[in-house]
Amino acid sequence: MERLLKTMKIGINEKIYLKDPESSDLGKRILEHSINLINEIGFENFTFRKLGTLIGSNESSIYRYFENKHKLLLYLSSWYWGWLEYQLVLATNAITNPSEKLKKTIEIFTKKTEIDSSFPHINEVLLNRIIINEYSKSYLTKEVEQENKDGYFEIYKRLIERISQMITNVNADYKYPASLASTILEGSFHQYFLQEHFPSLTNCDENNTPSAYFNDLVFKSLK
Amino acid sequence: MERLLKTMKIGINEKIYLKDPESSDLGKRILEHSINLINEIGFENFTFRKLGTLIGSNESSIYRYFENKHKLLLYLSSWYWGWLEYQLVLATNAITNPSEKLKKTIEIFTKKTEIDSSFPHINEVLLNRIIINEYSKSYLTKEVEQENKDGYFEIYKRLIERISQMITNVNADYKYPASLASTILEGSFHQYFLQEHFPSLTNCDENNTPSAYFNDLVFKSLK
DNA sequence: GCAAATATAATAGTATTACTATCAAATAAT
DNA sequence: ATTATTTGATAGTAATACTATTATATTTGC
User: I need a surface site. Which of A133, B14, B21, B24 has the fewest CB within 10 A?
Assistant: First the structure.
């Protein structure tokens, strides 16, 4: 995968970090290796101390970039949603037929993630796994109300609103475009989780992709 | 709401607890007040020490019932799924028409929870909120593989398999009964979460219930 | 009604987590 | 070359997530 706009940077709400991790070498190493470490040991077991040891840096230095690991997770997920939005716009912008556009959108959200060489310090494949396994934890908190006001979920919300709009463009009479958009997004990540850990609770596997399931679901709904 | 089978007890995998909390007064107080406290401060901030203070008991006494708060969450959710299964069977058993049966099932999963006076130490309304806000955390862990083998999610899985079977009974040719069943279950709880915290990401509100949305979704899919 | 068994409470202690503060050393900018 | 900025090292605190021990109730069996 090759990026078209070489100078593009995923724009993330500045309140999420104390110091922009994209602005320094240490910052980029924090991003790169936090993705590896969270994948390896899970978000609950992940600590800044362990990350510091891993990258040969100091715990206190990491705290200068992020207040805590929750903020780091918000950063990583915002990055992911921003990246996905970029993929989405790139893949669907030229399509004029609303159904084709929506079909492509479902594909973008449900297909297997591939490495994007444009961002060498971000492993999108592992980041996708973090979204599947940890993203819910970033909003299932007592602070969600305030953090939503602070705009920490804006890219995610914008993505769903985009899908919602595309649904309406296919069928303006459909009554639940936002709900269906949310279902597609959360649901497709959940189907991947089930595939790995609870295969009896899904029909998705090598032959039946989540893509096929959601295409069926969405287009029957909009008929 | 009145229970028909007075002696019924929700059966929970014995490996989840060290000592059956239903077997003593302290155990029941642990269940009752953990539901209140988790609702109030959230699962992350909840500790056995705080719970002990609240119920005028000792931290170490609570540890004799549950290894840790994760196990307590597994207990509470198993109880909830068992209770829902009971509601489901009761409400649908007599229905012979497969479509009617499935319609009733969707209603059971999406309707607002009401207090069940049969279990005075369990507040089902608050427990429902815990499921909405905390259940994902019980399986989004590094231990999910082992805990699944140990049977900690069996009631949840059985519930989804029941819905899946009902879907197949309506349309035997439908290719994704398990995936759709998972989508109904996770999705309906998620729609309630969105209603409360991200209303722009759902069309469900006082007038448009999640029930209506999922009925539309499911029956169009099965046509 | 009493002894034995069991359940609960009180206290203390450990390792880890989630930070904050301070100061020194390295690096970059002017 | 001086100053400012960034990073590293060390130490310290309060809270968490437990375990262990012993004392005190309470229940049960005979």
Answer: B14
User: Between vectors from CA A196 to CA B16 and to CA A167, what angle results, nearest 5°?
Assistant: 115
What are chain B's domains? 14-222 (1.10.357.10)
Taking each helix axis from N to C end, the angle separating B177-197 and B154-170, rounded to the nearest 10 degrees, works out to 110
Q: Do B202 and A178 touch (CB under 8 A)?
A: yes
Q: Which of residues 91-130 of A touch B (CB under 8 A)?
A: none
CA distance B169 to B171: 6
Instruction: Encode chain B (223 residues) as per-residue pLDDT tens digits.
Output: 555 555 577 889 999 999 999 999 999 999 999 999 999 999 999 999 999 999 999 999 999 999 999 999 999 999 999 999 999 999 999 999 999 999 999 999 999 998 988 888 999 999 999 999 999 999 999 999 999 999 999 999 999 999 999 999 999 999 999 999 999 999 999 999 999 999 999 999 988 999 999 999 999 999 9
Q: N- to C-terminal Cα distance for chain B? A: 35
Measured distance CA(A186)–CA(B22) in Å, rounded:
36
Task: Judge whether A188 and A150 are in contact, CB under 8 Å.
Answer: no
Residue–nucleotide distance: A145 CA to D13 C1' (Å): 30
The rounded distance, in Å, linking the Cα atoms of B34 and B46 is 8
- The token duo for A211 is 């893509």
Who's near A96: CB < 8 A, 6+ residues apart?
Answer: none
What are the contacts of B150-158 at 24+ separation with CB within 8 A? B150/B13, B150/B15, B151/B13, B151/B15, B152/B13, B152/B15, B152/B16, B152/B74, B152/B78, B153/A198, B154/B13, B155/B12, B155/B78, B155/B81, B155/B82, B155/B85, B156/B77, B156/B78, B156/B81, B157/A198, B157/A200, B157/A201, B158/B85
- The two tokens of residue B27 are 């155990």
Q: At B6, phi and psi to the nearest 5?
A: -60, -30
Of A149, A107, A146, A113, nearest in space to A131 by CA: A113
Q: Which residues of B touch A200 (CB under 8 A)?
A: 157, 161, 178
Q: Cβ distance B162 to B85 under 8 Å?
A: yes
Interchain contact A19–B (C-beta under 8 A):
no
Span CA (B18) to C1' (C19), Å: 33
Q: Using CB atoms, which residue from B41, B136, B161 is nearest to A140?
A: B136
Whether residue B84 lies within 8 A of chain A, CB to CB, comes out as: no
CA torsion through residues B180, B183, B189, B190, sign? negative
Q: In angstroms, rounded to a whole number, what is the distance separating the alpha carbons of residues B189 and B170?
A: 24
